[in-house]
Design brief:
243 residues, six-stranded parallel beta sheet, 37% helix
Length: 243
């Protein structure tokens, strides 16, 4: 697998150097002072991790992994507040996208591709629970992942509060509303929130949104693929702003 670091010390150095780490796999049942130091650093920096059998690590790399393998993102993530300053100072009407626990790397890549085509100025994802940026993400995005700034935040709700305090209306794509997408006003500064593939936007996030909107469904299937639904929402923003 590409884009990975193996070995406890090497991973510790990568964390200290603020490398964009997607996830760290740790060997179950392993101990020792250096291993515990790595565990502490992972928790302190909010890095996604999981404990796996040694066979899993052996499949990830044939090198001496010492019980730890880290997957490195092919792109550097942006600082959220710095991204927001850039957006607010750009002179353009803010247009942002928040992804609440999107977990499929190909859906993520497809969303990034559409976001880039629609002129989205930044994508905001949570540090935990979000799909990593892998080679598949890069391929599915057709390289758009290198053109759209992506910021990771500790909690999506804090990012929403920040957006709202900056005069940006936060609109959730959800079936839990009677408001159709075509009644929403996207000409003003806005941020679109898309929820997880299986359960949509989390209830805690739904409670703090400025507006909710849904897509009309004419068939018997109850929902669209999230990347398709996201494309419809983003292009409705484009339609309103260019008409």
């Amino acid at each position: 697998m590409n884009n990975q670091i193996y070995g406890i010390r090497a991973i510790l150095e990568a964390i200290d150097a603020a490398q964009p780490i997607n996830k760290i796999f740790l060997q179950k049942g392993l101990g020792g002072e250096l291993f515990r130091e790595l565990e502490t650093s992972i928790r302190k920096n909010g890095i996604s991790s999981s404990y796996v059998p040694v066979e899993k690590l052996n499949r990830l790399t044939k090198n001496n992994h010492q019980g730890a393998v880290a997957q490195i993102s092919p792109v550097q993530f942006h600082n959220f507040e710095a991204l927001m300053e850039q957006v607010m100072e750009s002179g353009e009407t803010p247009f942002l996208l928040l992804l609440d626990q999107i977990s499929d790397v190909r859906n993520f890549g497809a969303i990034i591709r559409t976001a880039e085509c629609c002129g989205v100025q930044g994508i905001i994802i949570p540090k935990t629970g979000a799909a990593p940026i892998t080679d598949d993400t890069v391929k599915t995005s057709a390289g758009a992942v290198f053109n759209v700034p992506i910021a990771k935040v500790d909690h999506l709700k804090d990012a929403i509060f920040y957006l709202q305090s900056s005069g940006i209306s936060v609109v959730g794509a959800t079936e839990k509303t009677d408001n159709p997408i075509y009644s929403a006003d996207f000409k003003a500064p806005c941020a679109i929130v898309m929820g997880a593939e299986d359960r949509g936007i989390s209830s805690s996030v739904l409670k703090i949104l400025d507006h909710k909107a849904k897509l009309p469904l004419m068939g018997q299937i109850g929902s669209l693929n999230v990347s398709v639904a996201c494309g419809v929402f983003l292009y409705e923003v484009v339609r309103q702003r260019t008409s």
